[in-house]
Amino acid sequence: MNMSLRERKKQRTRQALIDAAGRLFDEQGYEATTVEQIAAAADVSTRTFFTYFRHKADVLYANSFERIDVGVRVIGSRQPGERPVQLLARAFDEMLAESWEMGLTAGLVGEAFKLPIHSHRASVDRSDTRLERLAAALVSACDIDRLTAYSMVAAAIGAVSGAAAVAMGEGRTDEEVLAETARACRRALAGFDS
Amino acid sequence: MNMSLRERKKQRTRQALIDAAGRLFDEQGYEATTVEQIAAAADVSTRTFFTYFRHKADVLYANSFERIDVGVRVIGSRQPGERPVQLLARAFDEMLAESWEMGLTAGLVGEAFKLPIHSHRASVDRSDTRLERLAAALVSACDIDRLTAYSMVAAAIGAVSGAAAVAMGEGRTDEEVLAETARACRRALAGFDS
DNA sequence: TGTAAATATGCATCGAGTGCAACTAAAGTC
DNA sequence: GACTTTAGTTGCACTCGATGCATATTTACA
């Protein structure tokens, strides 16, 4: 980890923004918090916020995007003979494990799942979405058609999000939430093991 | 259908907005089209657009929301002994059948699926989302816990959206798209038949 | 130390979305 | 048919997310 001063500063600012956003979202809710407030709390200009995150909502997913990397990596490490369903389930397990480990606040995750997030003006770079990246990885790793791959990943994401939202909404413990999401994921995938 | 003049006018305006939006989205794409343009094309003020649709994106889902009603109704009509998975699959079949019947342009549907839709300022009325409404209906109709219901519905929605997006992206015929989405839906649900 | 490259910031502007108040047209009343 | 009530339309001002551009300010590197 030999970062240049520049690099370190960038990381620090980025983290400051994430922390500030997390704190403010928890305190006032997502909608009630403005980018201006986040930037002020992180001691940078509003304009600078947008050099780190394309959209206000992206700060919520900041770590989520890194989690996707984990999933893509798992998919890339497919064992010979491993079936797509198993592989994808394994990828989700790793991603979910990561999620809790890196101490996302419930507030952050909760908001993230709650939001039917969209994009305002942003011309939505599809290749950057969770679905796209995981499905693409699955297609390259296995002998599977795009349609099936996308359906599988989308079903899994849906199940996981739905389960997590309800479980967290009901105030379950982290362990329970983790267990329930993993279970929902497997159930959603089961039928694709044709 | 004995509507008052007022009611008829409202429907006409609403339809004019939907039509104008569909046309413009097809011609220029979703992002490039402004609400101002849609309103102008429908010959109403910009402000009026927002009395019909809460968000720009809602005009895309205009008919989709009505489809959800169909699904909710199917779920409400559960046959004694019918399992949640069968019931939900039936609901999705009906909703999908409706979709093509009422002549949604591929452009409209395509855009709708493409968008990782979100909400700008709008404090997202959750009880109004597809997921919420279908899951809630399922919980009342069957003896099923919220967590499972939400996971199921979310998985199904994901699978259907994913399959539809890919199938349409590949230029399949309407029949094929319909068949593939129905299949993806069933596969996503299969594992929930515990 | 000076210069090139990367960041940060201010400013102007666009588009979505909301609240409010004034206006217009339809509906119901006498 | 004129009168009032009520629903729906519109303009206006404003907030906030987001982008482009031009200008500082830093850091890197010779």
What labels would you give this structure?
homodimer, 194 residues, mainly alpha, Arc Repressor Mutant, subunit A, 2 domains, 9 helices, 71% helix, DNA-binding
Describe this structure in words.
The structure is a homodimer of 194-residue chains. Chain A has 194 residues and is mainly α. Chain A folds into 2 domains: 1-53, Homeodomain-like (Arc Repressor Mutant, subunit A, Orthogonal Bundle); 56-190. Chain A is built from 9 helices and no strands. Chain A has helices at residues 5-28, 35-41, 46-52, 58-76, 84-101, 106-114, 130-141, 146-169, 174-190. In chain A, helix 1 crosses helix 2, helix 4 (58-76) crosses helix 5 (84-101) and helix 8 (146-169) packs antiparallel against helix 9. The longest helix of chain A has 24 residues, at 5-28. The radius of gyration of chain A is 18 Å and the shape is globular. The N and C termini of chain A lie far apart (45 Å). Residues 104-127 of chain A have low confidence and may be disordered. Chains A and B meet through helix 8 and helix 9 of A and helix 8 and helix 9 of B. The structure holds a DNA duplex (30 and 30 nucleotides).
> Which spans of chain A have pLDDT < 50 for at least 5 consecutive residues?
104-127
Q: List the helices and strands of chain A in order.
A: HHHHHHHHH
Count of domains of chain A: 2
Taken from the alpha-carbon principal axes, the silhouette of chain A is globular
The SS-based structural class of chain A is mainly alpha
| Strand content bin of chain A | under 5%
Biggest interface between chains: A-B, 47 and 47 residues
* Rg value of chain A: 18 Å
Approximate helicity band of chain A: over 70%
Number of discrete helical segments of chain A: 9
- Largest sheet features of chain A: none
